[in-house]
Amino acid sequence: MNPPSARPLPAIAQRAQRLRTSAIHDLLQLANRADVVSLAGGLPDAASFPADALREASDRVLREQPHAALQYGPTEGIAPLREWVAAHLRAQGMDFTPAQVLITSGSQQGLDLLGKVLVDPGSRVVVERPSYLGALQAFALYAPEFVGIEADASGPLPEALAAALPGARMAYLQPRFSNPAGRSIAPARADALAALLRAADAWLVEDDPYGELWFDAPPAPGLIARDVPQGAHLGTFSKVLAPGLRLGWIAGPQGLIDKLVQAKQAADLHTASFNQMLVAEVLRAGVVERGLPVLRRIYRERRDAMLSALDANMPEGVAWTKPDGGLFVWVTLPPQLDAAALLPQAIACGVAYVPGDTFNVGAPARNTLRLSYSTVDAPTIRGAVARLAALIHETLHHEPALRSA
Ligand SMILES: Cc1ncc(COP(=O)(O)O)c(C=O)c1O
Question: Which amino acids bring their CB within 6 angstroms of ligand 1?
Answer without folding.
Answer: 42, 106-108, 132, 134, 174, 179, 207, 209, 236, 238, 243, 248
